[in-house]
Write a structure and sequence with these properties.
3 copies of one chain form a homotrimer.
Chain A lengths: L16 H14 L4 E3 L6 H6 L6 H5 L4 H9 L21 H10 L8 H13 L11 H12 L6 H7 L2 E5 L2 E2 L5 H7 L22 E2 L2 E2 L1 H4 L6 H12 L6 H17 L4 E6 L9 H12 L5 H22 L2 E6 L1 E2 L4 H7 L7 E2 L9 H8 L7 H5 L7 E5 L3 H11 L5 E3 L9 H15 L17 H21 L5 H19 L24
Parallel strand pairs in A: 1-2, 2-4, 3-5, 6-7, 7-10, 10-11
Antiparallel strand pairs in A: 8-9
Helix pairs in contact in A: 1-20, 1-21, 6-20, 11-12, 13-14, 18-19, 19-20, 20-21
Enzyme class (chains A, B, C): isomerase
Pathway (chains A, B, C): Carbohydrate metabolism; pentose and glucuronate interconversion
Family (chains A, B, C): Belongs to the metallo-dependent hydrolases superfamily. Uronate isomerase family.
Amino acid sequence: MADALRLHPDRFFPPDRAERDAARAVYDETAGLPIVSPHGHVDPALLAEDRPFPEPAELLITPDHYVFRMLHSQGVPLDALGVPRADGSRADVAPREVWRLFCAHWHAFAGTPTRAWMEYELHELFSVEVAPSADTADRIYDQIAERLASPEYRPRVLFERFGIETLATTDAASSALEHHRALDADDWNRPTPPNGAADGSAGARRVIPTFRPDALVQIARAGWSDHVQRLGELAGGAIEDYDSFAAALRRRRADFAALGAVATDHGAETARTGWLPEAERDAVFARALGGAATAEDEAAFTAHMLMAFAEMSADDGLVMQLHVGALRNHDRPLFERFGADKGADIPVATEFTRALRPLLSEFAGGTDRDTAAADGAGRPPFRLIAFTLDESTYARELAPLAGYYPGLVLGPAWWFHDSVEGMLRYRERTTETAGFYNTAGFNDDTRAFCSIPARHDLARRVDAHYLGRLVARHQLGLSEAREVGRALAYDLPRRAYRLDRPAPATAGGAAHARTDGVLA
Amino acid sequence: MADALRLHPDRFFPPDRAERDAARAVYDETAGLPIVSPHGHVDPALLAEDRPFPEPAELLITPDHYVFRMLHSQGVPLDALGVPRADGSRADVAPREVWRLFCAHWHAFAGTPTRAWMEYELHELFSVEVAPSADTADRIYDQIAERLASPEYRPRVLFERFGIETLATTDAASSALEHHRALDADDWNRPTPPNGAADGSAGARRVIPTFRPDALVQIARAGWSDHVQRLGELAGGAIEDYDSFAAALRRRRADFAALGAVATDHGAETARTGWLPEAERDAVFARALGGAATAEDEAAFTAHMLMAFAEMSADDGLVMQLHVGALRNHDRPLFERFGADKGADIPVATEFTRALRPLLSEFAGGTDRDTAAADGAGRPPFRLIAFTLDESTYARELAPLAGYYPGLVLGPAWWFHDSVEGMLRYRERTTETAGFYNTAGFNDDTRAFCSIPARHDLARRVDAHYLGRLVARHQLGLSEAREVGRALAYDLPRRAYRLDRPAPATAGGAAHARTDGVLA
Amino acid sequence: MADALRLHPDRFFPPDRAERDAARAVYDETAGLPIVSPHGHVDPALLAEDRPFPEPAELLITPDHYVFRMLHSQGVPLDALGVPRADGSRADVAPREVWRLFCAHWHAFAGTPTRAWMEYELHELFSVEVAPSADTADRIYDQIAERLASPEYRPRVLFERFGIETLATTDAASSALEHHRALDADDWNRPTPPNGAADGSAGARRVIPTFRPDALVQIARAGWSDHVQRLGELAGGAIEDYDSFAAALRRRRADFAALGAVATDHGAETARTGWLPEAERDAVFARALGGAATAEDEAAFTAHMLMAFAEMSADDGLVMQLHVGALRNHDRPLFERFGADKGADIPVATEFTRALRPLLSEFAGGTDRDTAAADGAGRPPFRLIAFTLDESTYARELAPLAGYYPGLVLGPAWWFHDSVEGMLRYRERTTETAGFYNTAGFNDDTRAFCSIPARHDLARRVDAHYLGRLVARHQLGLSEAREVGRALAYDLPRRAYRLDRPAPATAGGAAHARTDGVLA
């Protein structure tokens, strides 16, 4: 007989009664809040076009590297899963066979967040009531396929069913943003806010882009000049030197902001920052245009551009996000056959204290500077949100930095660490030095649209777990814990990313009184 | 209505009943023990002069970088808090306004040790019964101000009320020690010990200095030659070369010891140790005297001086403390305006295994050496107490080193890690390899005199928490757990720092039998 | 009165009732399973000769660096413990005095795994019922000595009493393997398997060797040429260049495999891997033969040889084990007097992501390669089992690598981390990314034969603890948790090391149904 698939109402809470009761009370406060998703990788075409989803394997397995990397580690070839190859071809496998492979390896996911998210999706979204296995694979496949054919499973219907308030995508700086332009012209993307006031703020849009210029900074890679050329075309002027390059970036940032963008996103292997002297900067850029940039040129130029992007953010108010510490495409032969984003990006030890000093020291101090003129202009202060894959930096570097610099906010537990123990470690290692209010709440960071509510639910439960522990240890009163829970789930991501809509009423019912001071 | 401020009797204990009951039993054993504070930064003038404390903000906010760094991170300028600037000036703000800013940001401290310490101080010391907030700020301010005016709040009265047995301050090697000289002439500083025996040991003093020579080692910094000149004056001889420098340091160590010092303290960015060959050492010192020392000179000379100080400790018996791993004054513009110790010291990754090898290999082996002559002299064995800000070194480097070398003892969780989760991580990562008896008990390390009992209470509660867990998991019997708890709270710091007074009777009442072997 | 020594049936389980009940249920599943010990350091002479054990100190104290390093850290000289010196001499101390020293320092082991193992051995093996102390030392000594004299305490009787199915020793590549040859000729070493089928597989032996060639790779050390000469003699051909060296290694691997070896073991300070170009490789080897290899030569050659050994493993199917990150013989003066393995090996920070990339990328990808020819040959796929002393690499590097590469399996928590908290951290940091099925189960890694059942019992209890937590948090159903527990205790080590005997029936009674897919 097949094992039942159920979602226990106390899942992910601490088993101790005092802790669990407090965790429940905090979760009651946050479970019904809208989803704010200020950082992720959903394809904007999905919501711009609103086409039905394909069958189960194409929806849940093939595009999700969390899923197929685990199957690969257990000896399942990517070709057997129909994962697209670098040359655009694809092994000829039936989706149902892919689904069967996944179900037969369900045991391999025991104890992982993928298991937790998938259980949520199968049960909550598709009403599956048996655990995947070789025996149940076909039954589940058919059930999901049937649902996907119904209009209630169209992307926009799900978007609203999920309770998503804002969803940010991630878009190359040289993207034409055609889907965001389509969304901009679509009434669906600008709903009347709950309080009736059409405030026109960025937060009033449902789907917004995020400016990601990494490919333009990687001056030693093969495709760089193509990206630069495309940037020039989109920004309306040929790029002949560093100055025209920087000017084009500024114009493109304005294009993104006009479509609702509130943030930029930057990925790099290290957190190194620092201005290049002008002459050197120009020489490096010239070498890059000539196709002769070296790896060290790229590293130095990346450090320089992080300073330049910080300066642009200080000017245009886009929040700057920095994700560092992954060595991409570790498995070279597989990269040659299948290309990037195949689960083979592996973290490395990361240094922030020295690396970020130039940037933070110049831009993130925020107060007590000789910057009266700038402040007088009424611009929002500079803000950097930093993410790490090296957990040893939480307590050692990032929490001390965020607990000091007004212009630095900690992004949530990222990627491999977006899990029960991973999120608990994040709170345990950052809260005592940085508090809760120097963190940015949760990011789902996902390409898998259907996993968004599963991921936010897990995060809210784990934050409730942590807060429940503080209450049961008498470190925090329950009413303050509920307050903090609400901030983590809703108020802080909105504040961190400047999505300034008025807060909706609490889903739980009773209005929740807060002093304005808390999240000013 | 304002939230109540209460201290739950089970605060910081594990919520599970079996663990909590055992934790309570351990804490019952330790709660009433005298406070031994062998490492801290209280100004000795406070107790030498015994003047009344000023008003609340000056006592609790302005001098405490734990407090004002968090406010700064939330956008409050240091000038708005009246923090003194580097040039000696100070923004003209009313103390009551400073206090209001602190209370309005009380939420930012949720989950931090500063919150825990402050709750203890407000409630236990000043009988405050409402939580700070914008609404309650004035009421609390007035209540504390009123208490401070009373003779019961004079420093020496509080010292005794806190149950402090020994308090070590930290004093520059080139300090004239005028306050410690005054204390030395003051009967208050040499109380009759509980058992009536005036034993004349270092531990018989209440307030003692600690020898900190860092400024004399930083040969590439601007003020170095001033410190050297002052050292020469105090030690009675001009410093013209390395030999006269070393001789002066030895004389000054003797001066400190004569005033009760039992230890030295050394801070450095890294743990690098190693002798310079004589010729190189002399050349570096000559360059320093000529104002031409480089950064690498300073690093190499620091490594050399740690060896030299270890050799001096092996001779004069002063316990050597080493604190490494903080990058000082990370925020350069703020450092220029406000100077050092403004909450902008940020940890960096630290290496101990290779760095300490020369020092430990030469001085800390302690047994099985060809050192019969030295041992025969009856001198106490060399002892180094090491502190880290990089928790990844606890289980990887420091516990394995301390669980091997007889001359190495682990200092407690330090600075950012002096917190509930931080202290639990410390015990979880060090105990299984080094045991409890290779650790030094607790240090409060504080400048904030009124926080001393709060910090020791928290540490005793967290150690009781950890021990309660071991009991509930059947890893340790309750009577042995109580024994260990008492060692951590009282016996081990006294042993580690050689404060050899006879142990007082247990505050809890019944005498507590121990074999002498345990702490010999 | 002496404290009682008892073993609580719930020891090491979580105290919370829901967690503990689930932990008990998992442990019920695993407690009676046979012991698979695929990596350790027991002397094969012990079982080849089956002589009685000597007295208690020689059995439990003198050869166990876990025990004597802690005593040494508390100031007990190694000579006082009768530890053999490098020159073969030994201080003249009575074994009973050694035992007394150990018992008098019993408190120093509070909270350590050595305490837990020793309690198990004393109580389960020797029926000791009082805790060691100065008072009870003699009584316990006599009791153990009496038992050791009985035939029921001979090594082979204990081997069977412990329920050991397979025990791998670790043997130098240049060992003559005389004890393993004796065992090979001994019926005791090839029992009839439980199901009656004498399958002739490696797993059908009780005691097997492991190929450890480290001494042959350390080309800059004094004794290297002796090892090489010995290798040549054993492999039947003089070693004159790299090619004859590599050929001799291959022949010796075949010798080990013929005696049942299933694995090789490699220790290095770092995880650096990478081929040397042929000319450079030959030049380095020639320099080594000439006695002129440098430290950098050795490091580069070690990196090269790890590639070469991986290639050999891909050919002959021996599982490759890699242990890195210990700085050996930290205390130089003690090393000169007492030699290696005296508790002074100290971990260092370790990097895997970049260091292992050449090896994993070439050998561990396993699928989706242009290796149809090789796969067609029916050889088992390459497998590396990696161990670390740097826990910061669990979640950051090793779990992401093992959760991706089919040819990489994670070894268990190693050495200093083979402890309650250490094993919990291992599961907490690896499971969410790599799952359970990319780990190798438990290794006892011990020289102390009598500690084998203690160590396996502790590991099974801690895995039950972790699984009980997942059940109580509703992350895993109880029946799946029991399944996983069984895999960790028995199936996974057998799979990881290719010990392919049919699984015995569950000791607990009821047969335990599993799909074959899980551990195919």
